[in-house]
Amino acid sequence: MTQTQSYRVAVDIGGTFTDAVCLSPEGTVRLAKALSIPGRQDSSVLEAVERIGVGLAEVGDFIHGTTTALNALLERSGARLAMVVTRGFRDVYEIGRASRPEMYNIHYHRPPMLLRRRDVFEVAERVGADGEVALPLDEAEVTALAARLAADYEAVAVCFLHAHRFTEHERRAKELISAAAPGLAVVASHEVAPQWREYERFSTTLVSAYVTPKIGDYLSRLETRLAEDGLPVPLHVMQSNGGVMTAQMGVSRAVQTLFSGPVGGTVAGVAIGAQLGVDRLICVDMGGTSFDVSLVVNGSADIDAELEIEGHPVLTPSVIMHSLGAGGGSIIHVESGGLRVGPESAGASPGPACYARGGERPTITDANLLLGRIPEDTRMAGTVALDRAAAERAMARVATELGLDVTRLAAGAVAVADAAMADAIRELTVARGIDPRGFDLLAFGGAGPLHAVALAEELAIPRVIVPAAPGTLSAWGMLQADVRHDLVRAFFAVAGRVPAGRVAEELHALRAEARGLLAAENVSPAQMVLQSSGDLRYAGQEYTLTVPLPERVNGAALGEVTEAFHAAYQERYGHSNPAEDVEIVNLRVAAIGVRPRPATPPVEARPRPAPTRWARTVFSGEAHDTAVHDRTDLGAGSRVIGPCIVLETGCTTLVPPGWQATLTEHGHVILERLT
């Protein structure tokens, strides 16, 4: 049974809801939502799949986005961790770069490390910067150490000096430790980050080892339960780079699953941009717990080869994302006499007060309900009835403390949340020299379309796109993803002096490895796409820019690559130095296995719909009679004028006065200012 002859399913777990999308062989889409069960994510997945109404035996492709690894890192709930290093280099990780990120913050404290100094063990071995062995690995010392590691730890990171140039010592040390202590998760630095810069390589390896047992246990448990229920194919998981890989490979490359959950929305943004002919998008995903921002630039997800999470550098290609604790479940409270929203969330249990599930603290969802932005008869996720009286009681407790009435507090809380989200967008755009006014805003998640226009007005963004089924878009985006593996090899040479044949030889070896990885995931040669690039810098600089490389590398091609680097440097920093030598630091190959794309059936044209009902909604402190439309009543070309509300299962779109909404033939809603 092939993917095109069977159902394709994707499941995305959020802090409040678990979303499932199912694509039939005929192209029809089924959607489902289930409340996320804290500590039982595998049960949430199975419940969401059950609500779709398709037997797992009929599924030929199953993709999952999970926050298990990221949560383990953020909550410091990962493995008891040890590190094995070259003798004399025990403190590389603790010293770091000796930098102070917040120079003028006198209260700054460095984020705690993932292990203590006494958890770092030295062994005899040494490799020079040129990759030559200066001191052989003392295998007896490693074997003796393994027994101690097995007794006290759950995971081990093996990080030797210059292992990116000579990997054999790390490989052998891992073999010895795994043989003597088979229950340990052992991660070697050359497997996850074969690059220069020892501290960053060590940090990446530690992060991967720290989350490996947690993600391994979870994926193993989930895959077992899915197989028991009849799933005939391997489970696939999303990666931080926007691609997918098998769950088995995800366990061995745990660091690549850190943004497995939110990245599906960015992949969906690329697909929607292609449908609409838009190649610059700000993607904002506001769910129940968090607000995630990412970019689509020139029709592709904005990816960086390095990211930092909670002070930990991680050398793995990832969609650049900025996250904020602002969602529908973010709790409204008073702190130091001022109104605050989040980052604490009511989550799925007990949830917002209006869910009537035991929550007594007001949230943004309660505020939107009291302002009339969510009609009272709405059922969240299609099943959860709303209790306005419970929301009023919760909001009144905070309102009394601040001397406000309930409506003013609700409006103020929404404004505080909107300001924080606008700042998060600026962090990813303006702070990096990018003008958000040249982008469209793609708003999704259960709460995103409620706040989208306010964000667009604050940032002078001209157009907002609310995609079809915005409440489950991240899961839909996973069905758009290809298999992907990113390979990198350290390579130090001046572009204008290195023989082109040497570059071609290294790229040929990387491409051969890339094809092997794709073949291991049952990708046929016809579906393989290999994209080469290089990390370049001016001589003497510390950081690099990534520039595409041609398939065939010769002297002329290297000259063109150098010119492309000058242009990229000029665009990023506003100046360049064409007279300076350009160094190639790393060579990269992105191995892509192209997968089938779900077709989007066109939406039929319909007459302009009449409102199904009316609501009283507060805009800028004044209540307005507001038309309420069911999104299913809209046809291609349908246009509704604000103020109005467009309702659908799992999401509410707010169209304020002075704005209009038009449905496209693909089922997306375009919000624009009235002219």
From TrEMBL:
Residues 8-178 form the Hydantoinase/oxoprolinase N-terminal domain. Residues 201-486 form the Hydantoinase A/oxoprolinase domain. GO terms for cellular component: cytosol. One of its GO terms (biological process) is glutathione metabolic process. Residues 507-666 form the Acetophenone carboxylase-like C-terminal domain. InterPro entries: ACX-like_C, Hydant_A_N, Hydantoinase_A, Oxoprolinase-like. GO terms for molecular function: 5-oxoprolinase (ATP-hydrolyzing) activity. This is 5-oxoprolinase. It comes from Acrocarpospora macrocephala.
